[in-house]
Known about the structure:
Elements: H1 2-32, H2 36-49, H3 54-65, H4 70-83, H5 88-115, H6 122-142, H7 148-169
Amino acid sequence: MNDDKDASADVKTQLKETRKATLLNMAAVQLKMKDYGQVVVNCSKVLEHDGSNVKALYRRAQGYMNTAFFIEAEVDLVRARQEDPDNKDVVTLMQRLKQMRKAYDAKSAKMYGNMFKHVTPLSELEAKKSAEKAKMQTEAEEKPSGDAMEVDEASKQTEAADAMQTEAAA
């Protein structure tokens, strides 16, 4: 009876090791096929049972890097480095991650910089609005009181136009 339990435990251990090897092999194939989402999924399954598996951490970091999840990739690489400080592949991938992140940040800065290039700054809109109000007040003070109603109406129209311009800029 005791032998059956030992045999059963051995079979379970072998199954777990086979499953881990299979998931890691699938992740390697999926990296080649550029199916990075599945790489992350399969390596995560391995890490659920063996959180210190350097190969799973390394491959999952590659999956994260190729989907621009740089922080997650860095976390995995730091863990892998803690587990195996002499692993040159991990060190090399960390350097590549820094380069990818720098290039991605430069590209993002350029893209977002161009996005707002043609937008009039809010301070300019407010300055124009203040100048127009001052002009209207000056005109109102210079004209006789009979024309004050016309100036008030013009002032309201200017304020409405300014409000629409401000909303459009936002």
